[in-house]
Amino acid sequence: MRPLPSEAGLGTRAIHAGEAADPSHAYLNPIYQTASFRFDSLAESEATFAGKRAGYFYTRNGNPTIAALEAKLAALEEVGLDEPARALAFGSGMAAVSAVLLALAEAGGQIISQEALYSATYQIEATLLPRYGIGVTFVDPSDPAAVAHALDEAGPRARLVFLETPVNPTLRCIDIAAIAEITHAHGALLVVDNTFATPYGQRPLALGADVSVYSTTKFISGHGAIIGGAVVARASADFCPWLELYRKHLGAVPGPFDAWLTALGLRTLHVRMERHCANALAVARFLEAHPQVAAVHYPGLPGFPDHALAARQMTAFGGMVSFDLKGGGEAARCVLDAVRLCVITPTLGTFDTLITHPATMSHFELSPAERHRMGISDGLIRLSVGLEDAADIIADLGQALDRV
Ligand code: PLP
Prior knowledge:
It is a single chain. The protein is of the alpha/beta class. It has 2 domains: 10-266, 3-Layer(aba) Sandwich (Aspartate Aminotransferase, domain 2); 269-401, Aspartate Aminotransferase, domain 1, CATH 3.90.1150.10. The chain is built from 15 helices and 12 strands. The strands form 2 sheets. It has a 7-stranded mixed beta sheet with strand order 1-7-6-5-4-2-3, sandwiched between helices. Strand 5, helix 8 (198-201) and strand 6 form a beta-alpha-beta unit. Helix 4 crosses helix 9 (240-250). The mean pLDDT is 96. It binds pyridoxal-5'-phosphate (PLP). The site of pyridoxal-5'-phosphate has 14 residues, from helix 4.
């Protein structure tokens, strides 16, 4: 492939990065749907295994289709970054999250984490990591002093700080640059789950974080067809080989076809995100004015508590909106039963508008007290605003809210 100019914008990178010239002259990258690669001689095999000859030998260790996706993911995160990035694709967002947590901490180490997180991440930290001697301190990172205090307490055991911003499902935002400074002053690494924003809306590495983590199941692949994940870091980071080791030996690789579908979806990320963001703002404004709605959570609304921070650190406010109903859980049930266009499903980031009840869906495994601490009431509804005509999404929500 001819190299992209270093000043190429995010859209150009989404379309062209990682699109290698295949010997067959195929217009689209071919799918190398194969478990392994064969050799003409033992000498060729030996040279490949030893890294003395360019080439692949086994898909869990590497595959051209997966490498093409990784090149595209890295190129997106390099916008605004002064050095090359390295991306690793995983078989799910949770495989990516767990590999990062395991590779960057070890027995006796301490993780400082936001508590209001995607529920599976929270559960790995709260219940699984302590079984292996990795401690976790939960803090509210909207108060940087609380993070500094937890890092002070952990002392030399501190390994990493884990954030998710905007937070699923309350959309609260955390100051990445401020937390990066505190984290680095304590000799630890900052990991940010950037699933909601995508590199179109926020680039954690350029803001000072060490690792961006993604569930590529969502906006990155964009079509709800695959489960996948990714980790992106500066290529020079000394922990990159550890991440690779964990990925290949724990076996958390994506299948080649899933990687291909993800790269295909990624080619339109910027166009999809532009429409997701515009529709989300229109929906948020409509909800804000509705008498049944107690509060709307969207970083793009001037009245949202974290709007000024979001405007500073995000390049777009994203396609996720959530709102609290005055009528609580009963009202939420009524709205979900009444929508006709919005699809009731626990995922997010696809082309259609998706509606979720976090208390009984994405966060159902947590106790009421944990949900309360995370700001998830029974009357909270989460929307992944799709690419339909905004007027039709608003009309559907309007008729559903009128039944409350
Ligand atoms: N991180 C966030 C913010 C998520 O919303 C999710 C899933 O919803 C994940 C991680 C986990 O991703 P996956 O379902 O692809 O394993």
